[in-house]
Write a structure and sequence with these properties.
This protein has 77 residues and is α+β, with helices and mostly antiparallel strands. The chain contains three helices and four strands; from the N terminus they run βββαααβ. The chain has a single domain, classed as Arc Repressor Mutant, subunit A (Orthogonal Bundle), CATH 1.10.10. The chain is globular, with a radius of gyration of 15 Å. The protein binds FE2/S2 (inorganic) cluster.
């Protein structure tokens, strides 16, 4: 049986149901947009905070579909 690897894409702030496309459009009109600006405008990043690293990437690259970022596992016990 062949093991299939699937890439999970992240495309929105789940807590506030805001697609990254909307954030990219917001930022396109405001070149100085920061994560704080996005939080003030949409609330994104202000709840669980899981979307922050993705929003930073949206703001720097314009990408709106980003592969799931899995934190490295700690090797300490
Ligand atoms: S996913 Fe954006 S604040 Fe939780």
């Amino acid at each position: 049986m062949q093991h299939m690897k699937r890439t999970v894409m992240v495309e929105k702030c789940v807590c506030h149901d805001v697609p990254f496309q909307r954030i990219a459009a917001f930022a396109a009109d405001r070149p100085e947009t920061t994560l704080d600006c996005v939080r003030e405008a949409f609330g994104c990043g202000g709840s669980c905070g899981m979307c922050r690293q993705y929003i930073r990437r949206v703001l720097t690259t314009g990408e709106t579909s980003i592969p799931l970022i899995v934190p490295a596992q700690s090797t300490s016990q």
